[in-house]
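This follows on from our talk about sequence and fold. Please put the record directly below this note.
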Amino acid sequence: RTFQIGEYAFSRTTGQRTLHAAYPVIGTDGFPDLIVVAALDLNFFDKLREEIAHLPSGATLTIADRQGTILYRYPHQEEYLGNSLPGDSWLYMSRWSEPEGTFTDTGVDRRKRIYAFHRLDLTDQKCDIYVRIGIPAETAYAEANEVMFRQMTVLALVSIIAIMLTHLIGNRLILDRVRRLMIAARQIADGNLTARADISHHHGEFGQLAQSFNDMAESLHSREIERRQAEEEIRLNEARLESILKISQFSAENIQELLDFALEEAITLTGSKIGYIDFYDEDKQEFTLNSWSSGVMKECAITDPCAVRQLEKTGLWGEAVRQRSPIVINDFKEENPLKKGYPEGHLALHSFLTIPVFSNHRIVAVVGAANKSSDYNYSDVRQLTLLMDSVWKIVERKTVEEELKRAKAYAEERSQAAEAASKAKSEFLAVMSHEIRTPMNGVIGMTDLALMTELTSVQHDYLQNIKHCSYSLLNIINDILDFSKIEAGRLEIEKTDFDLPDLADNSVRVLAAKCQEKNIRLSCEIAPDLPKTVIGDPSRIRQILVNLLGNAVKFTEHGEISVSVKPLGKQSRNICLIVFSVKDTGIGISADKLEAVFESFTQADSTTTRQYGGTGLGLSISKKLTQLMGGDLSVQSEVGKGSVFSFTLPLEIADTPAIKKSTAMLPEMPTNASGNILIAEDNDVNMLIISQLISKMGFTVIKAANGREAFSIYKENQIDLMFMDIHMPQMDGIEATRKIRDYENGKKHTPIIALTADAMKGDKEKCLNAGMDDYIAKPFKREEIIEAIKRFALKARV
């Protein structure tokens, strides 16, 4: 929006060369309404001829636009109009910061001129037009050359005289000193940086020159020494890093091998002949020899290396500890007080370097090197210190790794031993369970058979007592086996849905008859908001309740026993905390004995054991069972007033009601049934018991002494039901069952019931997975056999 100057332009229509200018006319809105443009004919500049006629011959006048295009040139206007200025001239003028200046350049006609230029800034853009005048250089310098010629003539005469005088006295005063400087310079050039110019600094300028020369030589010498020291330091650093790399990659069986290798690297790094590493105990102030270099034994005749030495009896290596810093001695004379503590036969030392090794600000080792061919210096101290610091970090890391490795190996060994012990315990429990249940089955079974015969009342009472004692013994054995399984970590908690109120009610009914015998009132209170169907281990919960009720009946002579089951609240959306309580009015427990009652094989006192009997395992097992199920068992008691045993269990609330098992009384044992029942049993007593029981029902009993015989009989006969023992010679019950199922292959299915003393966790599942239809553990009850026959043999004939 301001006045502007354009650039060189050529009109193809008029053939004229022009320079345009433009000026905007601004309206009231601040924007141009129109632009006035004017064209200047470049021939206008011919009017300047009269003004420049007085310029010297060969002078030029040039006018150019901002791009360096020639708008006018005098002389030879037509020849140069529209061309560009020479590159150097235009470059100088366009980059000059001031509006005017001078320079010397060769023009387009190849004549050297002195130019003066002025920049016309007609607009805000500046650099609109350049005006340049050039005068031939020879014209400008003509007068100066004449003056210079006269002066040079006089100077030549003076110079001749001066040279003659110099020749006379310079040989002695100048050339000799110059010659000395040249000799010193040549020596330095040849590498002798100690050469100096032998010229006193009192000899004027030459003395000052010589002093400067010597200072330069001294500086070069110092720099050369520093360069060589730096190169040596770099070499040593590279050697140290290479040693550290070798040490870190060294495949050592133990730390001792690593330290031996590190010591040899340290000796190589310092250029020593021998070396050692001693461990140091700051508390005991005692050295323990760890490593000697291979050169020690080659050059020494030591018979007793004295592996342990006290600090007070040591010399050089002890001094490094006493001063807690490196010790360097390069002139180790015989009378040196530190020359002590060597073992007999040690190599003579003439130079020595020893450093302490620190870990957590405590000295843990001392490393020494000796008998270097040259003096030990700071670089040796530094390199050995850095090397051993790195080595010690590796040693500490490998020490931790070895300790972890040993700890891991020990833990694995202990784990394997524990696993083997646990396995042995489990196998022992399984064997014990089997071996105990087998004869117990005979005792109880034969008692049941005897009770089925005609007996006098006295005989009947005797047999009932035998049966009662057998079940008491069985309960004790079960407690011992449960306790052993808990201790071995082999007791597992099941999770199944069951009816909680029914479980509590049935548990109370078990002890109802005994309470009636002792005239004790028995009650059971079940909270109305108690969840009906829950998920847990009903058999273990029933075991705990029955055990607590049994103890309450045992230790209560009169009064009452009450059982309550109620919820304490929800722990989460579907987990409810249930509290079971058994309260009695029995003998009670003293406060100092309350915790003892939960210990294994322990009762309140010995008189209680003698009077009431028991193993002292029941409460211990019950407490551990509640803990395994996520709860706990506690007691509140007062001597003479009774006790309250309570246990809490977190039980999951089931989404669907539990399927109730039939509790109807079984009908009398049938006596007119028919059919073939195969019994596979290798124990004669057990075979007699079950065969007699089945025969009395009217079935034909077919006997097999092992699994192979049972399989053979099955293939040749129509069998309605099988009772299969598990542990039998030649072929066990599991394999026999699998063969029978394979043989059936779509034929009529024959029910097979496991009848075994294997009553450990998983035994039932193993039997069912083999293809058996049910499982009865020994010692079995007569009712269990009758119910199984009704379910599988009689139902199949209906």
Confidence is low (pLDDT under 50) at residues 609-613, 662-667. The longest strand covers residues 642-653. The CA atoms of residues 737 and 771 lie 6 Å apart.
